[in-house]
Prior knowledge:
Blueprint: E1 10-15, E2 19-23, E3 26-29, H1 35-46, E4 50-55, E5 67-70, H2 74-84, E6 89-92, E7 99-102, E8 120-123, H3 127-132, E9 141-148, H4 152-163, E10 167-172, E11 184-185, E12 187-190, E13 195-197, E14 201-202, H5 203-218
Parallel strand pairs: 1-4, 1-6, 4-5, 6-9, 9-10
Antiparallel strand pairs: 2-3, 7-8, 10-12, 11-14, 12-13
Cytidine-5'-monophosphate is lined by residues 14, 74, 92-94, 96, 124, 126-128, 144-146.
Family: In the C-terminal section; belongs to the PPC synthetase family.
Catalytic activity: (R)-4'-phosphopantothenate + L-cysteine + CTP = N-[(R)-4-phosphopantothenoyl]-L-cysteine + CMP + diphosphate + H(+); N-[(R)-4-phosphopantothenoyl]-L-cysteine + H(+) = (R)-4'-phosphopantetheine + CO2
Binding site for CTP: 98, 108, 125-128, 145, 159, 163
Amino acid sequence: DQSKPLQGFSxxxxxxxxxxxxxxxxxxxxxxxxxxxHAIAEALAAAGAQTLLVSGPVTLPDPPGVEVVHVExxxxxxxxxxxxxxxxxxxxxAAVADWRVxxxxxxxxxxxxxxxxxxxLAENPDILATLSKAEGNRPRLLIGFxxxxxxxxxxxxxxxxxxxxxxxxxxxxxxxxxxxxxSDNQITLxxxxxxxxxxxxDKQAVARRLVERIAEQLAGSARS
Length: 224
Ligand code: C5P
């Protein structure tokens, strides 16, 4: 079936921000709509892949044809991802918070005039890097994102090495790129061969193009 080139393959996608609680009513978060990750999950499912989307808190509806696990924090996102293994394809598009609050308060922190609470931070797990090291269970094709403002290709190539993933989709978010606040993304795909610059595309088109590339890559290989 040519319209379903990923039939028989399984896929995992992370999307959205994570929320790291400070106390029962407050949190630390990254700015992320989840639109790119959700579009990728939808496109993978449309191409026939059995797709699990692990989503942080977003206002988007669950994409059609996709199983969705809703999580809040990075640690919950990591657990949901590890529980989903093995998968053929994993795309980490979530904007995971780099830190969580250590010594989380069970009660709402009281506001007192002239006294500021002190927050101690702890480093969050890197989900992409952890998936790349999942022994005996590493996704066959592991894809990450990188938002770069300068020297996009070289910074992203270094990130690809550091995180141990197969591909990085580098997104130019520099001041002249128009990415922030715009609906288009300027992607450079980094693989072990080098860099491939894509034209400016909207997020749905980025998702479709990525799925085409994934299907080419996996064509003919056995499903797991
Ligand atoms: O290190 P940086 O945040 O720039 O890396 C971005 C890539 O790593 C994205 O694919 C993002 O989803 C992933 N990531 C992750 N877990 C983290 C931080 C980033 O999976 N804690």
